[in-house]
């Protein structure tokens, strides 16, 4: 049974188990280790969300732990506020700091982003150590314990339940988010900004959301640490600690939330065991555990590069649906009557399609230069609603560049693009997607480890309206059912409904191209931009695709602009052809006219008169 379906029940059961464990009164030593494991797990879960799922590496999470710890320590000791107010204000400070740092750093990519996290991680560490009111490197002592209904959590045993309840419910909330509209957008970040933006996902908004979420988890961890230790100083919040948190996430399984817990358990127990056993073996004390644990970690990551939990899941396939479930078929238990009585989603109704034959797309004298290279040189053509137009030409003709200009990926050097009577050349890809453009890619862009259905649901992102808060509290279930039904209809249109539960990377190349088309259809487009959709398809698959595209155009009035090299496929499909050569338009007209055009024969077909 999937975790999300019974998340509340799972949480209640887990809470009762924690109380039972506390009731048995295990040795204080193990309680202490468990407390630290729980505190570390919160930070590592944020790193799973940030690094493993969103693809943004951070070495600076220990600084956010420090912000949460120092904020509550100062507010409770100096200002005399309650620890719970310390938590609230600490979270506010953490959110503000993370948001500001995110605005500065998240626009970076590649190795620049982790380097920036190292820079501000070190900076915050030295701020903690040099601020007079924070006690400099001596820190703050005398922090009061957390009080719950008059009961003070003085000892480690008292704090055990609170720490692990925080871990339990944080994991449930994050798991619910990951299986929602918000979660699919977050997971799309790792698949590439271009693909996500073309599906209408505001990538910067979701990057900031993930960054702040991970920081808040670290801040809560710092709050728990401060009131458990009753004292704070800068040492636990340095760069080394930040690297340690990242190692925990990676060792456990950076793609899985519960991998964070497993990694925290493994690293904490390993370090404790080495600290006890190495002095007796070597006959002297020292930080030798750092060397030995480093060698063991290298061996472990070579043997299991995706983490220990990933290895377990692949060995026990049944566990995959529990630890990292897909959204597929989770919500079938909703009463159909209750569903039918729900209000229609504001974004789910179809867009207003222009009447067949009405002007839809106008490309006007487009020029695009890269230095001295003219990729496009005065390209112009028009499309009407309901038309299928083919864009053809030899390799290097500028077709892909023109395609990217129309979809908003590349800005023009001069000229204009009008869509439904509106100039759109200044709009980015995301805003053009909102207006009704959808596209596929020459090189397939899918989230490989997500299900076929979930990949299509990314395309339906704009047609839902639920937020991450709705997902946490399960208020998005009806919308999810409607979106899943829509996604299944799109898969059925391209003949992939039977593959909905498979991972996208298990499909053939031809099927993956059909999946991209289904994802584009899920956005309810007026204009479908297809970049070599028949490449890699077998003969029967091409016939199936041709039938599907004709059905979309003739039956639903969707206009299609298609780049393709398969001339037989194009000639039997399009209403009009635009031919390019070296960035110049050389012919426009009906397929038979273009086929017999001498310039086309010479430049593209390679035949002689």
How would you describe what is shown here?
The structure is a single chain. The protein has 609 residues and is α/β, with parallel strands linked by helices. The protein has helices at 7-23, 28-53, 61-77, 83-105, 112-130, 156-178, 181-188, 193-198, 203-229, 239-253, 257-282, 288-303, 308-315, 320-323, 336-340, 399-407, 429-435, 452-459, 468-472, 477-493, 509-521, 539-556, 567-571, 591-595, 598-605, and strands spanning 140-141, 147-148, 151-152, 231-232, 359-370, 373-384, 388-392, 414-419, 422-423, 437-439, 527-531, 559-563, 576-581, 584-589. A 6-stranded mixed beta sheet has the order 10-11-12-7-13-14, sandwiched between helices. A 4-stranded antiparallel beta sheet has the order 6-5-8-9, covered by helices on one side. The protein has a two-stranded antiparallel sheet with strand order 1-4. A hairpin with a 2-residue loop joins strand 8 (414-419) and strand 9 (422-423). Helix 2 (28-53) runs parallel beside helix 6 (156-178), helix 3 (61-77) runs parallel beside helix 5 (112-130) and helix 11 packs across helix 12. The longest helix is centred in the middle third of the chain and has 27 residues, at 203-229. The radius of gyration is 28 Å and the shape is elongated. The protein starts with 6 loop residues before the first helix and ends with a helix.
């Amino acid at each position: 049974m999937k975790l999300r379906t019974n998340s509340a029940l799972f949480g209640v059961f887990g809470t009762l188990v924690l109380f039972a464990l506390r009731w048995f009164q295990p040795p204080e030593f193990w309680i202490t280790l468990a407390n630290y494991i729980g505190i570390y797990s919160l930070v590592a879960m944020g790193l799973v969300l940030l690094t493993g799922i969103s693809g943004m590496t951070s070495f600076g999470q220990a600084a956010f732990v420090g912000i949460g710890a120092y904020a509550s320590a100062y507010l409770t000791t100096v200002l005399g506020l309650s620890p719970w107010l310390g938590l609230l204000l600490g979270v506010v400070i953490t959110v503000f700091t993370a948001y500001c740092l995110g605005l500065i750093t998240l626009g970076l990519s590649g190795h620049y982003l982790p380097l920036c996290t190292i820079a501000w991680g070190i900076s915050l560490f030295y701020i903690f150590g040099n601020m007079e009111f924070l006690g400099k490197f001596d820190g703050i002592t005398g922090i009061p314990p957390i009080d719950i209904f008059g009961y003070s959590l003085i000892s480690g045993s008292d704090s055990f339940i609170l720490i692990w309840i925080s871990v339990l419910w944080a994991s449930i909330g994050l798991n619910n988010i990951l299986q929602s509209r918000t979660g699919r957008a977050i997971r799309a970040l790792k698949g590439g900004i271009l693909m996500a933006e073309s599906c209408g996902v505001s990538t910067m908004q979701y990057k900031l959301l993930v960054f702040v979420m991970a920081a808040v988890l670290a801040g809560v961890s710092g709050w728990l640490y401060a009131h458990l230790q009753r004292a704070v100083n800068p040492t636990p919040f340095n760069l080394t600690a930040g690297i340690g948190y990242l190692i925990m996430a990676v060792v456990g399984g950076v793609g899985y939330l519960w991998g964070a817990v497993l990694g925290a358990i493994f690293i904490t127990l390993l370090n404790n065991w080495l600290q006890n056993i190495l002095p007796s073996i070597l006959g002297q004390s020292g930080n030798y555990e750092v060397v030995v644990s480093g060698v063991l970690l290298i061996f472990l990551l070579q043997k299991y590069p995706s983490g220990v939990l990933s290895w377990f899941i692949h060995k026990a396939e049944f566990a995959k649906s529990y630890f990292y479930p897909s959204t597929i078929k989770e919500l079938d238990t909703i009463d159909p009557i209750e569903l039918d009585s729900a209000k229609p989603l504001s974004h789910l109704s179809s867009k207003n399609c222009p009447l067949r034959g009405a002007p839809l797309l106008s490309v006007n004298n487009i020029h695009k230069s890269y230095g001295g290279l003219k990729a496009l040189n005065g390209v112009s053509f028009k499309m009407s609603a309901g038309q299928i137009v083919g864009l053809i030409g030899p390799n290097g003709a500028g077709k892909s560049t023109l395609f990217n200009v129309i979809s908003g990926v590349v800005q023009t050097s001069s000229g204009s693009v009008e869509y439904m009577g509106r100039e759109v050349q200044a709009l980015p890809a995301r805003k053009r997607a909102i207006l009704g453009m959808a596209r596929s890619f020459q090189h397939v862009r899918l989230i490989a480890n997500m299900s076929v259905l979930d990949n299509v649901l990314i395309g339906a992102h704009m047609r839902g309206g639920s937020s991450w808060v709705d997902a946490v509290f399960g208020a998005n279930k009806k919308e999810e059912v409607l979106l899943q039904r829509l996604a299944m209809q799109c898969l059925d249109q391209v003949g992939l409904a039977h593959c909905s539960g498979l991972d996208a990377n298990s499909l053939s190349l031809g099927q993956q191209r059909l999946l991209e088309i289904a994802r584009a259809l899920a956005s309810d487009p007026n204009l479908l931009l297809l970049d070599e959709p028949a490449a890699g398809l077998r003969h029967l698959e091409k016939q199936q695709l041709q039938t599907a595209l004709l059905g979309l155009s003739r039956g639903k009035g969707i206009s299609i602009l298609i780049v393709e090299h398969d001339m037989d496929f194009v000639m039997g499909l399009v209403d009009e052809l635009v031919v390019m050569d070296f960035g110049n338009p050389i012919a426009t007209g009906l397929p038979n006219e273009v086929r017999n055009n001498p310039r086309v024969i010479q430049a593209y077909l390679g035949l002689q008169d």
